[in-house]
Amino acid sequence: MAPDLAWLFILLPLLSFLLCVFVTRPYPRLSGYVTIAAVGATFLLALLAFWAVGNLPADRTIESSIQWVVIGGSVLKVGLVIDSLTAIMLIIVSLVSFLIQIYSQGYMAGDPGYSRYYAFMSLFTASMLGLVLASNLLLVFIFWELVGLCSYLLIGFWYQRPAAAAAAKKAFLVTRLGDLGFLTALLVAFNATGNLDIRHLIDLAEAKQLAGITLTAVALGIFSGAVGKSAQFPLHVWLPDAMEGPTPVSALIHAATMVAAGVYLVGRTLPLFLAAPDVLLVVAVIGGLTAFIAATMGLVMTDIKRVLAYSTISQLGYMMMGLGVGGFVAGIFHLFNHAFFKALLFLAAGSVIHSLGTQDLREMGGLRRFMPVTFLTMLAGALSLAGLPPFSGFWSKDEILLDALRFGGVGQILYVLGLVTAFLTAFYTFRMFFLAFGGEYRGVGPAPAGHSHHGPPHESPPVMTVPLILLAVPSVLSGFLAFGGIFGTFGEFLISRLPWHPHYEPGLDPTTMALSALVSLLGIFGAYAFYGAGWVSPEAFTSAFRPIHTLLVNRYYMDHLYNWIARRVVLGVAAVLDWVDRYGVDGVVNAVAELAVMMAGSLRLLQRGWVQFYALMVTFGIILLAAFFGFFGDLIALLRG
Amino acid sequence: MLTAIILLPVAGALLLAVLPPDRRLIRAVSVTFTLLPLLLGIYLLANFNLTQAGPQFVERVPWVRILGFNVDYYLGVDGLSLPLLLLNLLLGFLAVLVSWNISYRDREYFILLLILVAAVSGVFSALDYFLFFLFWEVEVIPMYLLIGVWGTGRREYSAVKYLIYTLVGSAAMLFGILWLYFTAGIGTFDMLELGRLNLAREFQALVFLALIFGFAVKLPVFPFHTWLPDAHTDAPTAVSVLLAGILLKMGGYGIIRGVVNIAPEAARIYAPLLVTLAVVNVVYGALVCLNQVDLKRLVAFSSISHMGYVLMGIAAGTQTALTGAVLQMVSHGLITGMLFSLVGLVYDKAHTRQIPDLGGLAARMPIIGWLFVFAGLAALGLPGLSGFIAEFLVFLGTFPVWPLAAILGVVTVVITAGYILWAVERVFFGPVKRVALEQVGDANFVEWLPLAVFAAMIAFIGVYPRWVTEIINVTLPQLVARLGG
User: Is the CB of A70 less than 8 angstroms away from the CB of B466?
Assistant: First the structure.
């Protein structure tokens, strides 16, 4: 594969974006086809790239770069690289995006913004592919911001809804808070090394030339960006609100790909973290904490998409924890598996929402009879998320737990935390599942305003169910890539062609496997006891733990805190400064002016209007110039003797 | 060639004065006599020699020779001035399009607009400090009248404020220029020649202050900025475009060419002060934006914040930072020009600029709405658009010298995103707020054409900044060498 072909991954969907904006806008269906064709082509290219990388000699990669800005001796390069990590990411992004673009034809049918939707989806796919291809941090940052832009535009897709507009803004601002660190890391890294090439930075870190406080700052800065993008504690607050976007958007951007970018970036630059163990520990702890906290909030949500959103945060925390305990392969493997089963879960939820016109779990129930395909595919996704063997989530979760155990120290605490989280995950997943599909239909007649769907629940059209089925396949099977594949196991392929040599120790730990399978089963059983069989009344249970329930429903009051800071502190300071500007700084200026005018005794002159004043100023100016010339003429004569 | 660029708009103004005041004729003349200089400017760009650091397309004739007072009619452009000259020619042309619907005394309006464009072209072409000053002064009067006669709100107050502020700054500048002339004692106002001297340190420190004051008012630098929100808010749309788009850049350009290059040692002495003021500009301007309820005033304050990055780059004095500063001037000229045009359209159609009275406009005016989102994203530094690379270069170049300032600049990026996205949300998103807004229309061809040009330029520079940075870097190394950076 010719290296320059890598740019096609970005250019094809970008072209489709431009076509959707400038050409096919009046023909919505055509915009859809153009996008599907472009994204489909990138999937074929991704397969080609995978094949090409697999056939490369070990440790070789495909690279292409151009000089973007040259200033004196400094060169800002932007370049692409396809190595084994990129090859895997390309397949995830292009395949999931392709299936979601097909599905969206059904979900978005008849929406007045249909062309705009596909335009933004194309732009997103281009940016996301660019992000995983970029070989230096500057280009990563550029695409990083562009996927953030697409996220903003698509969360706010139904911008007439105030909640959607507010959620879009919140997502952009909160992630940007994390990006401050990322941007600072770029400055520090460039200042220290004169180069933002990731391979170069990795080499320097491994050779201990990039070390100490500088390396810590760079790694911490990168992680700060990842915390924002991958919705890690304490910047996770934007992701649940992001569910205001259309559900296929949530599936693609806020579950499978963009939110995983933070995990990807930490994985991509992991040697920097390995050389800065303090930061690595921060990654592990933040990841574990996020996984646990998000799972607890997932327990009490009544909106089906919000349950999934918290589960995404939790799973991203899991991946981050995996990387933090040095489990490069485990973390990326979980990212890979999660992308498919979480996209599936979101699309299945979308199928339900599309059919019922509500996202409230309390208005669902009994859907297994009305929507058999959605029911079965969602079950596959739920089992995978719950981590039940042999579904895909089980295998990668297991590797992460095992790596935590091997890490020792804090790793052992994280191991326990991970098991608890696994239990909570299984519980809330099947709580959601039983509430939606179990029992009897609790729906209440016609759908609320704004949705064109009404009447009894019905299965979605094939254009939506076929992508569900196609995503169910990897959700069930992708875990087995741990044992073999075209170019060896997932792990073997992943570490084979990278700029560094990750530590990878394959192996299975029977105890961990048994424990994690057990907690998963317990969780499912617990959910069944509460929401399936009704042995225990959730209401009674909740009222017994009222304070905890209130805390969780209010999301630990973190949104309240951020709102308070934004409204009271930031806007308060702004108001004070504005007042100071008007009456302080400008007050002095006006006072000086008035004083001058008063001293000149010509207050009335100003008030007579501009014509007179202008005439005066011109006269004044001429006199002034004449005086200058006269005065300086004399001065010169004087000086020249 | 440069003379033609300066005189063509003047010729247009004279034509307007003698031709019958026919609406279409006035516009045809105005378009022609701003488009022709723009085409000449593009010709200069095409023939610009990227290997020659000194001035090109030079025209020099002795002009005033009285009593040892040697003023030359000396024009020329180099890597520093060419991008800004082109920006002025482009904005001048677009400003005519933006002014299409002016009806009150349109002949006089366009005459003044043309003279304004000519004067600013003169500022960016003049290499004789005295000539530079004359062009600088010529700009003040048409701007004063344009705000005072065609403005809105407290237009007379704002116009007089602008005038007095500028004249006070100019007086200090004139004093500085003459002092410099006589102290240097080489009998020329040649800015490049003066920029090769090594003046006494104490003299540099004093003349620096006199010279920079006028430019600092123009840029504007806190605490001399309070004319700006008033003038920008009350000026007619196209005049705000020119005021923010190009007149502020005269300040930045002046500081680089007329102050720092001539008194480099003083620049090093005052660098801590300048960088502090730059940070204040950036942070303070952005925070004050958050409290604005008039959309136009918000954009005006954002200029204070964004021009702070220019000052930061100049204060850092590294080649990267200075490249960023100049690129930021070009970029901000385009972005803020686009934003002011958009605010003007919103005002024309909705008859208010008060953010609380607006809401949900994107549904009624999608072209204006989405272009506003585009311009807003450019202003908040979205990669791929021109603002990002300009600010990034400033940060990159400032960080080694003033790390804290660079980081504070980076942090402000969030505040910027905050006030822009919040404004977008309140004005364009949500349900249509009032019945009166249900009827507003979208942009027509003459209205969106200049916006499309702005957008294309912003995206082009954002994707391929080398196109501009290569030109800037033809000339910068000399300056950087003088600064010892």
Answer: yes
Complex confidence, ipTM: 0.94
pLDDT in tens, A487-508: 889 999 999 889 899 988 887 8
Which residue in chain A has the smallest CA separation from B156?
A: A610
Q: Which residue of A has its CA nearest to B432?
A: A160
- Residue A168: predicted pLDDT: 96
Of B156, B174, B319, the CB nearest to A610: B156
List, for residues A52-90, the tens digit of each pLDDT value: 999 988 878 888 888 898 888 788 889 999 999 999 999
CA distance A169 to chain B (A): 6
Residue B410 has its nearest CB partner, among A183, A581, A589, at A183
Query: Cβ contact (<8 Å) for A183 and B182?
Result: no
Express each pLDDT in B96-129 by its tens digit: 999 998 888 888 999 999 999 999 999 999 999 9
Q: What is the pTM of this model?
A: 0.93
Q: Which residues of A touch B174 (CB under 8 A)?
A: 628
Which distant-in-sequence residues (6+ apart) come within 8 Å of A468 by Cβ?
A103, A344, A347, A348, A351, A373, A374, A377, A378
DSSP state of B430: S
What burial class does residue A343 get, using C-beta atoms within 10 Å of its C-beta: 0-12 exposed, 13-18 middle, 19+ buried?
A: buried
Phi, psi of A112 (to 5 degrees): -65, -20
CA–CA separation, A431 and A419 (whole Å): 18
Are A574 and B291 an interchain contact pair (Cβ–Cβ within 8 Å)?
Answer: yes
Q: Which of residues 583-602 of A touch B (CB under 8 A)?
A: 585-586, 588-589, 593
Max Cα–Cα distance, chain A, nearest Å: 112
Tokens of B210: 């006199």
Chain segment A230-280, per-residue pLDDT in tens: 999 999 999 999 999 999 999 999 999 999 999 999 999 999 999 999 999
Binary contact (A145, B320; C-beta < 8 A): no
Note the pLDDT tens digit of each residue in B438-455: 888 888 888 899 999 999
pLDDT of residue B161: 86
B197-217 mean pLDDT: 93
Q: Which residues of B touch A606 (CB under 8 A)?
A: 160
A586-600 vs B155-184: helix crossing angle, rounded to 10: 80
B159 touches chain A (CB under 8 A): yes
Picking from A72, A145, A160, the nearest residue to B319 by CB comes out as A72
Could you please report the per-residue DSSP string of A131-190?
Answer: HHHB-BHHHHHHHHHHHHHHHHHHHTSSTTSHHHHHHHHHHHHHHHHHHHHHHHHHHHHH
Contact A68/B469 with Cβ under 8 angstroms? no
Beta-carbon separation of A72 and B320 below 8 A: yes
Q: What is the pLDDT of residue A189?
A: 95
CA count, 13 A, side-chain hemisphere, B325: 33
Going from the C-alpha of A97 to that of each of A157, A345, A351, A469, the distances in angstroms are 18, 15, 17, 15
Name residues 186-215 of chain B within 8 A of A (Cβ).
Answer: none
B25: which 2 tokens? 């004729």
> Mean per-residue pLDDT for A285-296?
96
Mean pLDDT taken over chain A: 89
Contact A172 B421 (CB under 8 A): yes
B366–chain A Cβ distance below 8 A for any pair: no
Percentage of chain B exceeding pLDDT 70: 100
User: Is the CB of A71 less than 8 angstroms away from the CB of B319?
Assistant: yes
Nearest to A106 by CA among A465, A469, A464: A464
| Nearest beta carbon to residue B68 from set A74, A624, A640 | A640
- Beta-bridged to residue A136, according to DSSP, are A197
Instruction: State the smallest CA–CA distance between residue A571 and chain B in angstroms.
Output: 7
**Do residues B389 and B323 lie in contact, with contact meaning Cβ atoms separated by under 8 Å?**
no
